[in-house]
Design brief:
The protein has 409 residues and is an alpha+beta fold. The chain has 13 helices and 13 strands. Strand 4 and strand 5 form a beta hairpin. The protein starts with a helix and ends with a helix.
């Protein structure tokens, strides 16, 4: 075999890989990603046939660059067999032989119902406490607006404010739900604030539901399910997701239930509370505060409004247990506000009704771990204490005296 021949073959192979490569990996990647995203399985449905048709067109476009590629030929053979087996040409949207055919534009497809293991749940309530998508819970004190959940379908943003005038005491006072434009819905906004008399019955534009566009079906793709002035569910039926908002007095709580595939995003989730929780500097050890209320109050300039024994009786009487019992104790002891007790009770009810079993089990296990850690670190003290009000007053008075004496020196 001559050197010239070898060089020629090398140039051809190099050129094919660099200039006009076989795109079988790209076609297969798109096909698999679309199947996963829409929970599609190989069967005789119009949607699967549409995706299959796009895949086969992608393979056809790259065919002349894939001679000798075993994966290309085996994949194309399997997919053409699917096309024939599922009789995809019977669907008008997949039948290219009809020159007068009008393809459906922006068709709304409901995602198939996900399995229980692929459901995630997040909740924010009380002073405030957050149950994250991974089943962990945090107590924290943050002021301002932050996204709770943000993905291609919807955004839930919460605003925390200090409504009591005490240090490190914040609660949810505003919840904004933005439903992004999609084939199944137009852009919609739901907004709830704690200073209103009750939760709104519909979106800000006055509507309460969105029917499926370009469809003869009477089904709603999105709707506001108003229960009463204190409870509303915003349901996104086409992606099997829901946002639950509750109100008690001047406080709000919010819960999100959605499939994993809906929540996945290519963007950064570092700022989303349901994924990453509160900033480390804003986190509070609620368990330690309950065990050592006096030390906690002195460290963070808080007041113990209700004695621990009284709070225990009250929280038991409303039926809270486990993590929600701890949240109830913390909120009642350090605010004295019974509205927060009711929010803890409702948060527990929603969690048991909406959260999948594996997340409920994880939350129980985490509480046991935290209790063990607390018992092993009984001597651990609170960190980053705030200067006490009395010390601040004394320091201010001392500084004022010094300033008055300076002109006399």
């Amino acid at each position: 075999m001559s050197i010239v021949y070898l060089v020629s073959i090398s140039i051809i192979l190099f050129s094919n890989n660099q200039v006009t490569p076989c795109r079988v990996e790209e076609c297969a990647g798109w096909f698999q990603k679309t199947k996963d995203y829409e929970n599609l399985v190989p069967k005789a449905t119009e949607r699967y046939c549409q995706v299959l048709q796009t895949y086969l067109k992608c393979m056809n476009d790259t065919q002349r660059f894939c001679h000798g590629n075993l994966r290309f030929h085996s994949s194309e053979l399997v997919m053409r067999r699917h096309w024939k087996e599922f009789e995809c040409e019977k669907w008008e949207s997949c039948n290219d032989s009809n020159p007068n055919k009008k393809r459906p534009v922006n068709t709304c497809y409901f995602n198939p119902p996900p399995s229980n293991r692929k459901i995630k749940y997040c909740s924010l309530f009380g002073d405030p406490h957050i149950i994250m998508f991974n089943g962990s819970i945090q107590t924290c004190s943050e002021e301002g607006a932050r996204p709770l959940v943000d993905n291609r379908y919807f955004l839930v943003q919460v605003t925390n404010k200090n409504v009591r005038g005490e240090a490190l005491t914040t609660t949810v006072t505003k919840v904004t739900v933005l439903i992004r434009k999609h084939n199944c819905t137009s852009s919609l906004t739901y907004e709830a604030t704690s200073d209103e008399e009750g939760l709104p019955r519909g979106f800000v534009d006055g509507t309460t539901y969105q029917m499926i566009p370009n469809s003869n079906s009477n089904s709603n793709s999105v709707e506001v399910l108003w229960q009463d002035n204190n409870y509303v569910e915003v349901s996104l039926h086409f992606i099997h997701s829901s946002i639950h908002i509750r109100r008690q007095g001047p406080y709000l709580s919010v819960s999100v239930k959605a499939p994993t595939i809906v929540l996945e995003t290519e963007g950064d989730v570092a700022n989303e509370l349901c994924w990453t929780g509160c900033r480390k500097s804003a986190q509070i050890s609620a368990e330690k505060a309950i065990e050592k209320p006096k030390s906690f109050a002195e460290c963070y300039n808080r007041r113990v409004h209700v004695l621990k024994k009284v709070a225990e009786d009250r929280c038991k009487n409303v039926g809270t247990s486990g993590t929600f019992y701890d949240a109830c104790l913390f909120d009642l002891m350090f605010t004295g506000d019974d509205y927060l007790v009711q929010l803890a009770r409702h948060a527990q009810s929603d969690f048991r009704r909406l959260a999948p079993h594996h997340i409920q089990s994880h939350l129980i296990q985490q509480r046991v771990r935290i209790q063990k850690q607390s018992s092993n670190n009984e001597t651990e003290t609170f960190q980053k204490c705030l200067p006490s009000a009395s010390k601040s007053i004394i320091s201010s008075a001392f500084l004022a005296v010094i300033l008055l004496l300076i002109p006399m020196i």
